[in-house]
Amino acid sequence: MRLRNVPGAREDIAKHELAINEPENNKGKWNEEFGNNNPIQLEIGMGKGLFLTTLAQQNPNINYVGIEKYSSVLVRALEKCEDLELDNIRFIRMEAEYIEDAFAEGEIDKIYLNFSDPWPKDRHAKRRLTSVQFLKRYDTILKKDGVVEFKTDNDDLFEFSVEQVPEAGWEFVAKTWDLHNDKELVQGNVMTEYETKFSGMGHPIHKYIIKR
User: Fold this and answer.
1) With the C-alpha atoms ordered 193, 52, 176, 135, is the resulting torsion angle positive or negative?
2) 78-110 residue pLDDT tens
3) I need a labelling partner for 19 at 20 to 30 A (CA). Which of 70, 94, 151, 163 fits?
4) Is the entire prediction scored with pTM above 0.85?
5) What are 7-29's pLDDT values in tens digits?
6) Packing angle of the helix pair 71-80, 50-58 (nearest 10 deg)
7) Helix and strand totals (H; E) in the chain
């Protein structure tokens, strides 16, 4: 996918009140950033923010942090928040591999991975957000009973991701190759921009929930 550059995006992000420019300063102190001790949930690769802003509106007693590496995409998520007056959401522009610099051990309650970059070449497998390497990072920042929820329409990525779970020492809470036809897992499902697009094209959506 070719991303269109948005002039001034980095500058707009840097001065936005919901953007955290030095997340390492909040490590172990995110409750202070939000001003409460509510659970903290994290979406990695949150795109334009539809999924996360919807959750934040639905669940005012949960705090949400969205990570996105592309300024031109993240600025759109910030724009979505302009009229929502949400105080339980924050955004970080950063590479996902540095999440342990931004969050302390056991600080996060749940991690969402939605339609992540498949990195299709074998030599890039460790860059996939569902790889053993990333699951080890999640193991550090998640609470002991925390879970990871992953959705994609990419068959190869999902198959790879499923294989990585036992290898990393995790286990499945739930798994489906066709979310929208799974009567249990589809309950309360919040759609992302990609999910709306791909499911509308007839692509089945795959999902798993895993824990340690």
Assistant:
1) positive
2) 988 988 989 999 999 999 999 999 999 999 999
3) 151
4) yes
5) 577 888 888 999 999 999 999 99
6) 30
7) 8, 7
